[in-house]
Amino acid sequence: MGYAVGVDLGGTKTAAGLVAADGSVLLRREAPTPAAEGPEAVLATVIGLAAEVIAAAPSAHASDAPLIGVGIGAAGVVDPRTRTVLSATDTLPGWAGTRIGAEAESALGLPVAVDNDVRAHALGEARYGAGRGRSTVLLVAAGTGVGGALIVGGVPLVGASSAAGHFGHMPVVEAQGLPCTCGRQGHVETIAAGPAIHAAYLRRGGQEPVADARAVFALAETGDPLALSVVEIAGRALGRAIGGLLNALDPDVVVVGGGLSQTSELWWGPLRDGVAAEAIDLVRDRAVVPAALGTAAALAGAGALAFDAALVSSTSPSSSSPSSASSPDSDPVPSSPIGARA
Q1: What is the pLDDT of residues 190-220, one digit of tens each?
Q2: Which of 27, 43, 123, 280 has the maximum number of C-beta atoms within 10 A of its C-beta?
Q3: Euclidean distance between the first and final Cα of the chain, in Å?
Q4: Above 90 in pLDDT, residue 91?
Q5: Residue 66 DSSP symbol
Q6: Residue range 79-83: average pLDDT?
Q7: Pairing of β 13-20 and β 25-32
Q8: Could you give all domains of the chain from N- to C-terminal order, each with its CATH number?
Q9: Nearest to residue 270, comparing CAs of 227, 232, 240?
């Protein structure tokens, strides 16, 4: 089937890699995301890294198989049908409205598929990682924020507004009264994300110099009572949210990723307790497992976006029209958000 270029565009770092059909990342390039310089500079970084990977691809594999396209997982609310950013936070100023797909396709001369970065991450874990072989995979990512995606039959659920996966904005009792960045209160991200763990430690009387959530976890490992309590509450709150998602969605497996998933049983134990407290009997024994691919998941998933788009293009009645694939206003895939399963 050839190879694809996968790009993972985050608020602080952008990575690109050469992705094989089995999800393996054969080479990788990285650069800081120049968010403060505006969307043009961010897009130039994406295109530049992808071009570096394309140039290095022949020496990275012995096969004569072609490069079939580029997949980009991008921060923000992304419409994969128009390949455009619909909205974004202040982490990427001016990013909303950027026509990622059209611009990158014009610059690189290859078909480009685009989706949200967390959905790309989920697709990588579902197809090649901890969810491999499962029909329905729920990814919950907990780190700087809380988010996720549902993969059904190999395809990310996008939603009518391309906003599916904002799991951090689910209410939990542990977060009652806490202000959320969305303007509401009581959402799980305000108690369970990394910055929220640090804020909770300080709010409850913890003293500096505890610089971040990593430092709170380090204190918890030493037995510090306040740090232990903060970590426990955060894990349990996220577990409650996952339990509610299990009740609503009934996936085959829940994969937990993000930086917090790499912490210890001090966090995982309360998380499992929270799941058990909320999940109904039919789903309470469903597997909740850590992500398997680490940072490679997002690149593998972005590559999968390109593989799927190429498969759709090759089987579409309109694929023989040269203009249909290159028009910036055309939908690169059918009504399914990224095309058929590879």
Answers
A1: 999 999 999 999 999 998 789 999 999 999 9
A2: 123
A3: 10
A4: no
A5: P
A6: 97
A7: antiparallel
A8: 3-123+295-326 (3.30.420.40), 132-290 (3.30.420.40)
A9: 232
